[in-house]
Structure formats: C-alpha cells, structure tokens
Amino acid sequence: xxxxxxxxxxxxxxxxxxxxxxxxxxxxxxxxxxxxxxxxxxxxxxxxxxxxxxxxxxxxxxxxxxxxxxxxxxxxxxxxxxxxxxxxxxxxxxxxxxxxxxxxxxxxxxxxxxxxxxxxxxxxxx
Length: 126
Ligand SMILES: [Cu+2]
What we know:
Layout: H1 11-20, E1 45-50, E2 53-55, E3 58-61, E4 65-71, E5 80-81, E6 98-103, E7 107-112, E8 120-125
Parallel strand pairs: 1-4, 3-8
Antiparallel strand pairs: 1-2, 4-6, 5-7, 7-8
C-alpha cells in the first residue's frame, strides 16, 4: 500500500509510508509542493557556529533529521530554542563541542545563543 499523495494522513505517518515505498528516480527535493517529504533526504545536517553566528542561519530538513551544531568559535555558545529552551537547549559549548537534536515534527524552529542573544538561527522541518 502506498499513498504518497494522501494529504489527510499525519506527516509522521506519511514519513513511515515513504520509508516503505521508495520512489527511485525522484529528485531529493521534488518540485511538486504536494509531494511528501523525501525521507531518503533526511541526512544528518550540521550547523557551524563561528564568528558569533550560526551557519547556515536557515537549515531546511526533512522530518526525522538529526541536526548537529559544532562550535568552531573561541567563545562558548549555546543552542537554545526560542521557546525558552523548552524544545531543545544545549549546555554551553566550548570550542569543538557539539550538540545534536533530532527534529521529528514539521514546523519552524527558531533558536538563539543564550549567551549572545543576537545570535539567531532557524531550522525548518518539512
Ligand atoms: Cu554565543
């Protein structure tokens, strides 16, 4: 059974269906906006923290993607979700320290560094 166009299903269920229904030949990012998330594209993503900024500032991933932040700065930084750290919150990361969070739910996740609040970034899960 495979209903890749069925939009009534929760996205998480669509993800499970997509896992069981590989569609070889489709590009990783289909042009069709109604296309289901391409779970095969859920490669781990990395955000580098350097020079008091998150790079890339905008990270777009598929549900289920593990995003890892790596602090390449000489200063400590944190990765704190904009909801006051309720969704995710790292400890202070020293140079070369890492923090990871797996985004399972579609949405827009803004985050910042709680030590330097002008440092902001966004993860979009779709
Ligand atoms: Cu910082």
